[in-house]
């Protein structure tokens, strides 16, 4: 892209990741016709809109699209799609899933907000909007992080702040890209969870182990044991279960099962998780957050609200 180099030369941030996402969030709130000029909503034909070719999300759940289409057919598109001018028509910046569902609902027009984003801003928003909304599987999310690192010069700390997750979560996801393509494809297809995939990183033969995990229906903890044996051999010393950097197992004397549970919860929330327990079965779960945005994200996920 023409302005990628100049943005990287300025330190990579350009206008700032949070500023870009803040623009989208504000536009989606300005749904009234009397909204500000920059955020005013207008109706345009579905046929005049095209998806972004570098959209990071490649897998769309068909059943979920059908559910959204049914809701749109009944209530319409409540949240406008963010687009930019593209030739004589428009290109999606954020909201491709709503656009696809609107087509299934046989809508002729959809509400949009038109913004003049550059190529690099459009790509960054497409990546970050999907990450924040949890619209990507683990591999798609990892690839999105990698693109933001490689093409725009962002650091892992900047990405973590922008998507309200821990830096260790970002780092752990990036490690999944070290897996063979066959294993990555199994994560994309939903056959392997992130916890399974992370356990296979660094194994001598992750493809064979992944097949064994699938054929035997192994849990994440069982996968970690299997991968450890593969790394160290039948007589080797088993390494401790992999866990996000900085996450400690408190109050359970290194229990591998509790540590594995901490890892799974950390994968789900993208935050550090600490579990303590006592002999009578009682205990506590502690989530470490570093900003009010992260706290708000956790509250939304626990309450079932869509981010």
Structure description:
It is a single chain. This protein has 307 residues and is an alpha/beta fold. The protein has two domains: 4-163, Conserved hypothetical protein from pyrococcus furiosus pfu- 392566-001, ParB domain (Alpha-Beta Complex), CATH 3.90.1530.30; 171-303, Arc Repressor Mutant, subunit A (Orthogonal Bundle). The protein contains 14 helices and seven strands. The strands form two sheets. A five-stranded mixed sheet has the order 1-5-3-4-2, sandwiched between helices. Strands 6-7 form a two-stranded antiparallel sheet. A hairpin with a 5-residue loop joins strand 6 (272-277) and strand 7. Helix 2 crosses helix 5, helix 5 runs antiparallel to helix 6 and helix 10 (194-200) runs parallel beside helix 12 (220-232). The longest helix is centred in the middle third of the chain and has 15 residues, at 138-152. Keywords: Chromosome partition, DNA-binding. Residues 42-131 form the ParB-like N-terminal domain.
Helix-strand blueprint:
Elements (H helix, E strand, L loop, with lengths): L3 H6 L7 H13 L12 E4 L3 E2 L11 H14 L5 E6 L2 E6 L1 H9 L4 E6 L4 H14 L5 H15 L3 H8 L3 H9 L5 H8 L5 H7 L5 H11 L3 H13 L23 H14 L2 E6 L5 E6 L3 H12 L4
Parallel strand pairs: 2-4, 3-5
Antiparallel strand pairs: 1-5, 3-4, 6-7
Helix pairs in contact: 2-5, 3-4, 5-6, 6-8, 7-8, 10-12
């Amino acid at each position: 892209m023409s302005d990628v180099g100049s943005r990287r030369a300025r330190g990579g941030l350009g206008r700032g990741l949070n500023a870009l996402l803040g623009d989208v969030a504000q536009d989606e709130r300005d749904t009234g016709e009397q909204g500000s000029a920059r955020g005013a909503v207008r109706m345009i034909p579905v046929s005049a809109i095209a998806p972004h070719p570098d959209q990071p999300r490649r897998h769309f759940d068909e059943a979920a699209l059908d559910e959204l289409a049914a809701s749109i057919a009944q209530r319409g598109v409540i949240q406008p799609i963010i687009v930019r001018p593209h030739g004589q028509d428009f290109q999606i910046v954020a909201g491709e899933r709503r656009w696809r569902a609107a087509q299934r609902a046989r809508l002729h027009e959809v509400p949009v907000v038109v913004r003049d984003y550059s190529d690099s801003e459009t790509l960054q928003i497409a990546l970050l909007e999907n990450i924040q909304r949890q619209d990507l599987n683990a591999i798609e999310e990892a690839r999105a992080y990698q693109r933001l690192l490689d093409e725009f010069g962002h650091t892992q700390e900047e990405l973590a702040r922008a998507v309200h997750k821990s830096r260790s979560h970002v780092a752990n996801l990036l490690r999944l890209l070290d897996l063979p393509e066959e294993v990555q494809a199994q994560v994309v297809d939903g056959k392997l969870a992130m916890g399974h995939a992370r356990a296979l990183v660094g194994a001598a033969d992750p493809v064979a182990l992944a097949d064994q995990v699938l054929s035997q229906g192994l849990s994440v903890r069982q996968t970690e044991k299997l991968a450890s044996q593969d790394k160290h051999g039948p007589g080797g010393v088993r390494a401790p279960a992999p866990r996000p950097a900085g996450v400690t197992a408190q109050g359970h004397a290194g229990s591998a099962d509790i540590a594995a549970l901490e890892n799974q919860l950390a994968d789900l929330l993208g935050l550090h998780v600490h579990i303590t327990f006592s002999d009578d079965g009682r205990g506590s779960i502690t989530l470490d957050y570093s900003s009010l945005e992260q706290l708000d994200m956790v509250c939304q996920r626990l309450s079932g609200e869509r981010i």
